[in-house]
Design goal:
By secondary structure, the chain is of the alpha/beta class. The protein is built from 15 helices and 22 strands. The strands form 5 sheets. Strands 2-1-9-8-7-10-11-21 form an 8-stranded mixed sheet, sandwiched between helices. Helix 4 runs parallel beside helix 5 (about 155-165). The longest helix is centred in the N-terminal third of the chain and has 21 residues, at about 90-110.
Amino acid sequence: MTKKNLIGGEWRGSDDVMEARFPYDGSLVDAVSMASAADMNDAMAAAVEGFEITRALPSHRRSEILTNMVGLLRERFDEVVEAMILEGGKNRKTAIGETTRALETLKVSAEEVRRIGGEVFSLDWTAAGANRQGFTRRQPVGTVLGITPFNYPVNLACHKIGPAIAAGNPIIIKPAEKTPLSTVILAEIVLEAGFPPQAFSMLNAWGPDCEMMAADPRVKMISFTGSGAVGWMLKSKAGQKKVTLELGGNAGVIVHNDADLADAAGQAAAGAFANAGQNCISVQRLLIQRDVFEDFTDLFVGEVKALKVGDPRDPAVDIGPMISLRDAERAEAWVDEAQKAGASVLVGGAREGAMFPPTVMTETAPGMRVNCEEVFAPVVTVSPYESWDDAVAIINDSSYGLQAGVFTNDVKRIMDAWERVEVGGLHINTVSTFRVDHMPYGGVKASGYGREGIKYAIEDMTELRLMTLNLR
């Protein structure tokens, strides 16, 4: 049965239907109705009405709604896992992990509702402020447009829905075209949890059709996770509204000669190839101090060869298909291009349909696309460096700056990396792929700006309001 869109509490179909197919074998999974311009207009109009309700909801009620969502998502846990496997080719281990994290995201959101506070402060630092007191509080911004990507469709939707509800905002969620089915389940959960129906809409829609919402003044904030090209385009249309962008990366990891090489190799293999490398903080560039380059590379290749590739429905599989044949062909083209320019493939590289095996490359150059752009595929490059300063310079020689990892036991190097490595998040003795859902998460440079992580997203989804009191 074709899935419908949820518009201010009303499930609505359309004649424009998009099929969802299993990336592993191309079989038909389901279909969704695609929202029209009229549907989007109605969703924004409903959200304006809904804001008058959500802004007045007491914190205990907002927390209760989010807690209800936790219970409902737990009840439908297996259904959500199956939807992600079939719509996106996500392997079962990763789908279970993502759904588990989504539960944590909603639980933390329910807790953070109760921590949205303000400040009382004195104004008499100068003579003009004598006998006056200052107060601040946080006010919800209004309708949030949340646009989510295909690679983590459930948890990243919760990273927008949870803080929006916590802050007292209505929200319109637009999922990725490639993974629409799991978000339909989330929409059902939001409605059943008791969030005011006017204040929530879920629109499966073609990307270009959503530009009207980005420009519409009834939308007060855009929270976007996805490609840089689309993110910066939406920002250009946003006008005066608030925008947070979580965009791409080509994360680097430094392994110095004092590191635990076996630990670094194991973490790097998991961090480079999780979710078939379709992760904006996936390990893409491994930089190894030359003294330990050969030893590390041998360990790393051994870890990679132990990964199982195949049908994502199989619980033992570590790497399933990429999201589409086209994406796998692009990854193959980039690897072939690098080989023709002198790079070597140590393992992997041979595509079969949408299946692209974990691929390790060496003897690459900085200007190759497998290094300087976001590969977003199970491809990693391994390169030696001479000095610590060289490693920091190579990491920073990128238009991106999302996250990075450093393996060393030297405190001076650790503090130097924290000072000089140009990223939003630096992880010591951990790979760039590390994320827990309450930490501030976001990047610099072309990787975007603003931060996710529930507390920090709530700050972005609220405005600070000041009141001064004359005590004379």
